Task: structure prediction
Amino acid sequence: MIDCELKIDGKKRIMKRCFPEVLDLHSTMDGVTTTVSRNDYDFNVRVKEIHFNGFSFVNQRYTANADVELHVSSMLENPVMTMGYVRSGNVWNEYELTENDVALTIQPHEDDTRLKFKKGSRVDVFNILLSPGYVRNVCERNPEVLERFVTNLDSDVPMSDPTFPGNKRLLRSLNSIGDYFMLGNYADKYLESKVLECITEYLYQKEGIEERPVKYNFVLRDKIHDARQVLLGKIKNPLSLHELAAEVGTNECTLKRAFKEEYHMSVFQYLYECRMNRAVSYLLDSQLSISEIATLLGFDYQSHFCTAFKRKFKMSPSQFREKSGRNL
Result:
């Protein structure tokens, strides 16, 4: 339920009315819901909403032909994490929000918003709304970065990070979301990557990070984790660096840098470690011959496998198997 109180030039016009009744023109086309207020010349509101799996976009346009105070009280089914962006104009809540300001907030089940518009105001606000499930899903992959947001969502505690003017990278990410109309069936994947990109750029700017570490870049981090899974699945016939980068949608240089930052070793060092760990499992838990193990791990020659194994364990595979057998 959403109630609102509207004051125009200090006089109450609407008191405790359901917000959808205040915004009294409602239409849906191609998945986009548009709601328009047409009942008051002094204050006009136009809201566009579009919903995807786990996140939504809401564009609000306000036109005030008088001094306006809008007080909206809402009871939400679930808390919501919101990134708000003032595309144009000025609006006041506890402080003034100006063009290009960006804020990250968590709205609990009970939310109370007060906005003030000066006469002549034309304000355009764009919001990204993230469901608790979506935030938790992203947090599972990036716990050290997003854990505090999940804590606030779970405890139903409001949160508001400091508002600041978005830099060029952040504003470009926010503004590029509108390009989804041209992407047809690929829109969902494009938008999810853009949502993650917006959160990434926001955190980069908030933390004053110039070197842009992988842990804050959720899109790139997912690609690096995908690269790891591809490596594990193709131990016998590993891809080249170029092929692996193309497989996960990045370039070779970025893959090498980001993989080493995430796993503290190069791609091929990681592959070597995985092969050796799997070799130990085969030696201890199977009756496979050394030659068969070498083939399963992608070595062209048994001697190459034995050399690689000895480099790590300081003994040959045969010696390792015999020693382990004696210790059992």
About this structure: The longest strand covers residues 55-64. The longest helix spans residues 187-207. Residues 15-27 have pLDDT under 50 and may be disordered.
